[in-house]
Amino acid sequence: MKSKISSPREIKKIKFDKDGLIPAVIQDYKTNEVLMLAYMNKESLKRTLKLNRTCFWSRSRKKFWIKGETSGNFQIVKSIWYDCDMDALLFKVRQIGVACHTGNRSCFFRRLK
């Protein structure tokens, strides 16, 4: 059975890695299409809960970023789930525009042959 995060106090259950990060899979709430993968820390997860829009931690830039803050392609959070080991998150979102910075609907548009 899946578990749903519904409040900031539930964040304590989540297992962040040694760098304080956790992978976040982003999925369309209606179609179940996987849109992207990003990373969060505790603060970006708290910001996501507060804003109801996805907020991530950029590992390369070492700063927070809200999906859509420059592109307008926001993700409205419908629900947040964690896996059986509590070390990965799944966000079901309403995607406004495209999810990928390349202009594709999903970041997963290439198939390995």
- What is the approximate shape? globular
Largest sheet: 5 strands, mixed
Give the rounded overall mean pLDDT. 92
Radius of gyration: 13 Å
Which percent band covers the strand fraction? Answer: 35-45%
Order of neighbouring strands in the sheet with most strands: 1-6-7-2-3
The SSE order reads EEEHEEEE
- At the fourth level of CATH, the homologous superfamily of the domain at 22-95 is Phosphoribosyl-AMP cyclohydrolase
CATH topology of the domain at 22-95: Ubiquitin-like (UB roll)
What is the end-to-end distance?
33 Å
Number of strands: 7
- Extract low-pLDDT stretches: none
CATH architecture designation of the domain at 22-95: Roll
Structure at a glance:
With 113 residues, the protein is mostly beta strands.
Explain what the structure shows.
By secondary structure, the chain is mainly beta. The chain has a domain at 22-95: Ubiquitin-like (UB roll). The protein has one helix and seven strands; from the N terminus they run βββαββββ. It has one helix spanning 42-51; strands spanning 3-5, 22-28, 34-40, 55-58, 63-66, 75-82, 89-95. Strands 1-6-7-2-3 form a five-stranded mixed sheet, covered by helices on one side. A two-stranded antiparallel sheet has the order 4-5. A hairpin with a 4-residue loop joins β4 (55-58) and β5. The protein is globular and about 35 Å long. The relative contact order is 0.23.
